[in-house]
């Protein structure tokens, strides 16, 4: 199969390749669907497709282009993509036309995040590693499973001049997508299996929330301001910069226009007050817990656990293969402020997953180096 240069795909929507699940695959990252380009308006978005000579879609990707100030030159970024056959021994036949196309658009550097899993650690292994005073990083712990094909992909990328990213990413080129995530496998499991997989604390907290009268409901676009108030409180408490409300309104409009269930909002109520809320994203058989928010009030009724359990149940009922809790730290030291989040996610009984991470290829070394110096000084 020969693959011509990627071409821009206009108006891709559910039922046509990546607009629905991604070039005939059961799922792709929500960061690679065409609608995500409408969310990231500060970038120029290019929805691309690889086609066979007979016109069949063989691969797809969303490239986000961020211009250098004052120049018509771009950093091209494909978060968690593109969607191609990464295990093809001739990987260059996929990447060479992509690079030629992006260079023709004015890209001076390309960053991508191959959706290729390298290692997995079960919840029991993670729990033991966290309790081990000699364990410093997740990568130092024997994995539950390892895919040697992923190492082959990394080697082919290195031979082609790609290097693991050290900085930069989707938002202002400042922070890349997480290399380590936590996922709960759902395929082939009953809901009872999933519940039994929760640790004792999770099961106790879910029951406590139910007995306290916590009710989790689905919200709509009109409930985004309620979510955002909790989100701003969470940002202040956890010391991160929150996104503005219009960002979430834009997400809702763009993603639900592509598919009505692409983005959902869940709200945990107790005694007439919303105590926690979260957004959920779905593409094909993959479901992501996207943004979470909560108040510090009445934490004893465990609204966070109730919220997660309702979203897990809905994902399972609708046939999802995986429930993705997104990023985790790979540092196991008690001094890491994110270790508590790892413990919380490990309580779901899922698994820690390591992807290949993001990779850079400079097309113009002078501009690529200049961008690196600029980012290092920010």
TrEMBL record:
Q: Which UniProt keywords apply?
A: Acyltransferase, Cell shape, Cell wall biogenesis/degradation, Peptidoglycan synthesis, Transferase
What spans are recorded as compositionally biased (Basic residues)? 1-12
InterPro entries (alphabetical): Acyl_CoA_acyltransferase (IPR016181), FEMABX (IPR003447), PG_Glycine_Bridge_Synth (IPR050644)
Q: Does the keyword Nucleotide-binding apply?
A: no
Asked if the record carries the keyword Transferase, the reply is yes
Region Disordered, residue ranges: 1-28
- Which protein family is it in? Belongs to the FemABX family.
Q: Which PANTHER family match?
A: LIPID II:GLYCINE GLYCYLTRANSFERASE (PTHR36174)
* Protein's name according to its UniProt entry: Aminoacyltransferase
